[in-house]
Amino acid sequence: MRTLQAARGLLAFVLITAGVFWTKGTRAPAWIRRQVRQHVVRAGILLLPLFGFLSVALGFLVIGQTVAWLSRLGAMDYLGPVMVLVIVRELGPLLTALVLLARVCTPMVVELGTARALGEVEGLESLGIDPVHFLVVPRVVGLSLAVLGLTVYLILGAVAAGYLWAFVQDVPLTPGDYLRQLAEALSWLDFAVLILKTLGFGAVLAAVTCYHGLARPLRLEGVAPATVRAVGQGLVACILLDAFFLLVYLVGS
């Protein structure tokens, strides 16, 4: 029952946010763009060093070993499909979303929950400022763009690191053959699903974060439980969204 109540409240919050974005999206455009840039920097650019390390680790641990084992088995023709399936479709977007959930969304819940508990949200309403337009919409847009950019950055770094690991192991594979197999395994549906999935991950994470930061904590003691709920529900939401896009890909292909 608690799960159904939480899902209903979150769905209502998502619909309210979509309505505010549709009706008030053109208001204060300069301020909204500035807030979006700040959240892109916070959730994207500042995390580039961390994702650089993750891309190298992912390339060494996944692609490098895949190339080495396929070479030993004489099945290098399967390299492209395996890389697209593992890195582009699944691990890249999902790993990016989970890292942002832990690194960005957690402090965001604390920030919004503290503002809610201290009465700052009510202060905005008394000034005639819509808190959803002021606090939620920029975070949804900024986090969606950040997940998209970081996912592309992670995939490109992993592909480069994977070939470097294969080169170190003396795998007989030229850069041209490596990129050719990857390009042949990609289709327009992979690019479409990647873009929609990453934007969806960012929007879902921002919605869950803002919902638990603004709706629940009426006192400072409620900020920590709200953060725990946001992390758990954000994880579940990302898994369910990933399963939905898997079904879309299976139907579309």
What tags apply to this protein structure?
253 residues, 9 helices, elongated
Give a written overview of the molecule.
The two termini are 37 Å apart. Helix content is 86%, strand content 0%. The model has no long low-confidence stretch (mean pLDDT 87). The chain has nine helices and no strands. The longest helix has 39 residues, at 79-117. The chain has helices at residues 2-24, 29-43, 48-73, 79-117, 120-126, 131-168, 175-185, 188-215, 223-252. By secondary structure, the protein is an all-alpha fold.
Cα-based radius of gyration, to the nearest Å: 21 Å
Structural class: mainly alpha
What's the domain count?
1
Helix fraction by DSSP (H/I, runs of at least 4): over 70%
Chain-averaged pLDDT: 87
Instruction: Give the tally of β-strands.
Output: 0
Give the overall silhouette.
Answer: elongated
Counting copies of identical and different chains, the oligomeric state is single chain
User: What summary fits the major beta sheet?
Assistant: none
SSE ordering: HHHHHHHHH
Q: What separation lies between the terminal Cα atoms? A: 37 Å
Strand content: under 5%
- Runs in which pLDDT lies below 50 for 5 or more consecutive residues are none
Distinct helical segment count: 9
